[in-house]
Amino acid sequence: MAAVPAVLQSEWTKIRTVSSTVWTLASAVIVTVAMGAALSALLKSSFDDLSDLERATFDPTFVSFSGMVLGQLAMVVFGVLVVGTEYSSGMIRTSLAAVPQRATFLFSKIAVAGALALLVGLVTSFLSFFLGQALLGEHRTTIGADNVLRAVVGGGIYMGLIAVFSMGVAAMLRSSMLSLGILVPFFFLISQILSAVPKAKEVAKYFPDQAGSKIMQVVPDALGSEKAPYGPWGGLAIMLVWVAASLLGGYLVLKRRDA
Amino acid sequence: MIELDGLTKRYGTKTAVDHLSFRVRPGMITGFLGPNGAGKSTTMRMMLDLDNPTSGTVRIDGRHYRELDEPLKYIGALLDAKAMHGGRSAHNNLLCLAQSNRIPRSRVGEVLDLVGLTAVARKKSKGFSLGMGQRLGIASALLGDPEILMFDEPVNGLDPEGIHWIRNLMKSLASEGRTIFVSSHLMSEMALTADHLIVIGQGKLLADTSMADFIQQNSRSFVRLRSPQQERLRDVLHADGFVVVEAGNGTLEVDGASTDRLGELAAAHQLTLHELSAQRASLEEAFMQMTAGAVEYHAHGTGTDVHGGAPAAPGPAWGANSGWGAAPGPGSGPTGEGV
């Protein structure tokens, strides 16, 4: 058996020696923080225009995470490219000849890339939170308030899991282009649109992004959003089921299909 | 030592590799020959456990590939030249592989030096030419200093200097006692490098023989005769105990005879000869004849096998293959007209 620490080291070298790692992860941080800051500033100035319901459920923590809708797409691209370029470059054959144990290969890669995505996700969510609160002025909350730390750490976990979910999907589809063509519209459009359509939104509540993002809300049903039949941890658990399913699917494809 | 036992790969109803069983022995270069699409690459991918066989097994020193501890130290392979991440430098591409098998970092520099890529070690590999990509692939195969090396079509797309370099590299690796398994679709290339020959066609084993035996059995030498008095000439030759084959276009072929003897015989019977020449069938023809049979066997009477009936072509066969030995002996060449 190939030694797991050696394979982890090898996968770390793969990740740090391609430029796509830097630009995808940098985009995730910059887009999320900048957009969160902009919306925080906007809401501060237009707080009085909000409806009574929105003011009653105003969630300054969740507002500062508004940029994740866009920033998560960079995480999707990072996750897809980590796995997908093995296939598009033909490197997969060389990689599997070096590490023929499929589980060791795939899960070492995902562990290294997932840990990096989680770390970058946490940095992003803390930056977004503090910058957002600074811009919200008198509507701000503090990290010490009830459930706020859970939401901020949860925001980082959410971004990490979005990346890991994308890695599993790319392993199943064995193509960067195909994976991006499905995941980007799904997270950016389909999930957002369906969550606003009656009936469809009952299903959309169980999508990985809809369920997982509940962890970032401090106020339940923040800003008059849809009531969910699960709490923040329940939502995260639903997202974890999606992630587990994509990883299992990715592993089975790698194990069964010819490289 | 690599052992294949009944290795089979089917894609739907198409059988790409059909019950292949053979051994690849150490200390020599084993050539793996077959026309394009014969199943060479599929076989090699199954040997590396990249493709799952439909049935049959491959054992490397008695073990399945997946059971090898740090496989790059046992077996190195060049499958296709571009099997690297183009955005990574040559050095980093090799470093990833080295680390996964706990090969010391210093070895990366050594193999880059060995293949002559030191100057471009820090360049992104997507800018590499085919030849440079091939060298990088060979560097990755040599990384673990393995006892077994596999090269899939290593001379493809290389310039003569590169081809020469790979030939010599394979020979020196074999002389160190390593097992070298190299595929090609060119008989002439194999004749120059291989000690042992495995020929497949349509996924089936057609020959498993030493190169020397293959040359001896397949480079048939014969004498070609053409005469306006063909009927009489044939009778005379028959009467003298020669086996005569009619080769079409009014030519006769006689196995195992010298031009001297046949010329004298014709003169003694006052027969006019328009041609009297020593011929030698090329190995390329022998190979094509062998694989054409396999092709025809499967292509149920479509009538046009892919080799276009080349073995029966009346051209000067002796010169078709350069390099490995133009026909020796007296009277070679299309000389001796009108004795």
Mean pLDDT of chain A: 93
Major sheet characteristics of chain B: 6 strands, mixed
Total number of β-strand segments of chain B?
A: 13
Q: What overall form of chain B do the CA principal axes indicate?
A: elongated
Structural class of chain B: alpha/beta
Can you offer a commentary on this structure?
The complex is a heterodimer of chains A (259) and B (339). Chain A is mainly α. Chain A has one domain. Chain A is built from twelve helices and no strands. In chain A, helix 7 packs antiparallel against helix 8. The longest helix of chain A has 35 residues. Chain B is of the alpha/beta class. Chain B has a six-stranded mixed beta sheet, sandwiched between helices. A four-stranded antiparallel beta sheet of chain B has the order 11-12-10-13, covered by helices on one side. In chain B, strands 2-1-4 form a three-stranded antiparallel beta sheet, with helices on one face. Chains A and B meet through helix 1 and helix 6 of A and helix 2 of B.
Please sum up the structure shown.
Chain A is built from twelve helices and no strands. Chain A has helices at residues 4-16, 19-45, 52-56, 60-64, 68-89, 91-98, 102-136, 148-173, 176-194, 200-204, 208-212, 232-256.
